[in-house]
Amino acid sequence: MKQTIPLIIVFTFGFFVIIAFFIPLRVFQDASQTFETWYTGVIAFFVFIGIFNIIKVNVNKIQRKLSDWQYSIILLFFLAFMMGAGFIGGPEGGVFDYLFEHMQIPLGATMFSLLAFFVASAAFRAFRARTPEATLLLIAAVIVMIGRVPIGYYIWKGFPNLVEWIMSVPNTAAKRGILFGADLGLISMALRVLLGIERSYMGGGRE
Amino acid sequence: MLLILLVFANQVELKAFDTPNDGGSSITLEWHPDTLFNSYVIFRSVDPEGNFEQICELSDRTTYFDTQVVGGEDYYYRVEARGRESAVSSYIVGPVRAFPQIFNTSRINIAVCIVVLFFAIIYYITRARRGQRLFIRKIPGITAVEEAIGRATEMGKPVLYVPGIMDIDEPETIASMSILGRVAEKTAEYGTPLYVPTSKAMVMSMAQQVVKEASIRVGRPDWFNIDNVRYLTDDQFGYVSAVDGIMVREKPATNFYLGKFYAESLILAETGFSTGAIQIAGTALPDQLPFFVAACDYTLLGEELYAASAYLSQEPVQLGSLKGQDVGKLIFVIVVILGVLDRLVGFDILYNLFNTAQQ
Predict the structure, then answer these.
(1) Distance (Å, whole) CA A51 – CA A87
(2) What confidence tens digit (pLDDT) does each residue in B212-238 have?
(3) Which fold has domain B5-97?
(4) What is the CATH number of domain B134-314?
(5) Which of residues 26-65 of A touch B (CB under 8 A)?
(6) Of A161, B14, B171, B282, which residue has the fewest beta carbons closer than 10 angstroms?
(7) ipTM at complex level
(8) Which of A66, A192, A193 to mutate: most B Cβ within 10 Å?
(9) HSE-up of B107 (CA within 13 Å, CB side)?
(10) Range of A7's domain?
């Protein structure tokens, strides 16, 4: 029963949404839209569950004096501070906005900027010509990199066109192949879930 | 019934017809552009003899979808083309009626895919249930899962499972939850700690349930620690920094990145690489796959992510569904090849059947 009722719900709503995808009648579209609205409502509720989990995990860490428990105090302090600033001053302007603009965004940008260094280190490893495939990758990458900068044109006028061809023909073909397989895999997984063959996502692993 | 009315009046040729593949709530108007005019004013009436009210004025379009109509009622239209010095009008076209279609023909290609896959999967599941052994191709990334967990166990270090940054309505996240169930079974069996940091609270709730049930299934409910499956933050780079922190502090021996990832994919994978972890990644986004391929030991490409859970289960019914999926894919590959030949030769039979772009 613990799994039967969720399976019935998944089957009923899942197949309804699939049918609504193909049938443009208003009654189907309205019902499908209503289900999406319910989902949005459920997501809003889960914000509180997320906050509750952060508080619970970190309070537990402080109480037990687990490793690096001091950071949990800082985290909980700023969680309370940001929430207080938001409730008192509102999201626009004021302390909340200031903290968001001058702390949250720069911190996020700092993490994002690490990507430049990681691209270089990952490319260094990936482009080592140890196998025929890696050699092919290296050659393609060098051509694309040279062709994408102005100096490439001055080395050889054909570089930009060659880059365009690499990107629009072999690269696009490979991407479409992956997407094609992924979409079929997606449909197949959706059918397994709807038919109740795949249940591990709800904790149960056997049919 | 598709009503098409053509009116040739001065320089404005107006077509008005029921918008195809909708629920009966729209009428489409089309006219040919003319460089003499810089705007087109559309008028509508329920009576050809009555007053026409202006419903819109457009300057850069020659198509208009009138969605302010009641299905089943007759409407009449005319378009007035206005230039700097002159204005001409079309004749009145109508009556035009919006009515609902029962099937959206522009999605027939998807319907065919679903039906073919459905029957292929059902056929092979039936064969698997009869006890027939089915050959499933080997997927290195999936077969490495057990080895990777075993390595963490031998080293006495935890396993880190990152289910992507999107919510549970994303198919990749659902696939990731299915794989998590299998990974949790193995880690619980071996008694290896499993960390599942999530970026969405709903994913956290689901992951907690999946991991808990898996531990019960293998007879190790005591192994489950609810604090190891936790919510961090919805913020993309806040989440990345928190997960990177876990990697650097806890030094997990095995990292799984299975789900939907964007710019954070390489930041996570490179940090994991720097800690010496064995890494298995999988996503359906082609733009992120090269990063995982470059930085991880194994990568599940596209469909392999969706197949992983069934593959790991080794249950005959699940494997039957995989076999059906592979056979379905073979059928579509053959159709694609035939479609290319059909187009090259010029028959265009398959092209016209599946070309939905212009409908």
Answers:
(1) 15
(2) 999 998 999 999 999 999 999 999 999
(3) Immunoglobulin-like (2.60.40)
(4) 3.40.50
(5) 26, 28-29, 39, 42-43, 46-47, 49-50, 53-54, 56-57, 60
(6) A161
(7) 0.88
(8) A192
(9) 17
(10) 1-89
